[in-house]
Structure prediction request, 221 residues.
Amino acid sequence: MTDGGDSPVGAENAAEKKVAKAVRVIAGSARGRKLKAFKGRDIRPTPDRVREALFNILGTRIAGSRFLDLCAGTGSVGLEALSRGARQVTWVEKERRACRLIAENVRRCGLTAAPHALLQRDALQAISLLEKGGEVFHFIFLDPPFRSPLAERLLCRLAQSPILAPGGLIVAEHSVHGDLQAEYNGLYRIRRRVFGEVVLSFYQRRELLSPGSDDEARSTG
Prediction:
């Protein structure tokens, strides 16, 4: 995660202080491969246990899907999707050094031949670019800085964007101290999972929802 992917550490965000731990691919063709990450505290990769929970929820739907990783940072979430059989993964990251890191991690995982794209762009600008290109994604993951309003801006923008496929799912990673709304322009939260300081909020468009679909659970592990 920085500003279009990596972010400064907020004092209130304990999760951002635990990034020294090695990041690895959890399952699939690149299982166990260690990913390169920046030294220091200016980047917050999605923790292994949060990624594992995310992909357990998405399950077999990942295979054959098109996956967009916005504010990609190290690229770990998109790499997990590609390792698990996603048909195509696109990373969006505005910081040049993070883009170089993602490219290196693709090589480390032996996934250079797998269909993928890496855009060095601001996340909001990238959405417009992807729309112009007619791109469509089944899953969109976003992980902007915890203290930034960017998550809400992205959700508002994506709510009516054609890049989200019919039946598609948006997942936002955010801080438990800065919760997101249950609805953005017809995009409704259907599930919320808490992992200590980190929260995953799952959104779909209104026409796909069933009554009482906002499901919350907390992980203390």
Observations:
- The mean pLDDT is 87.
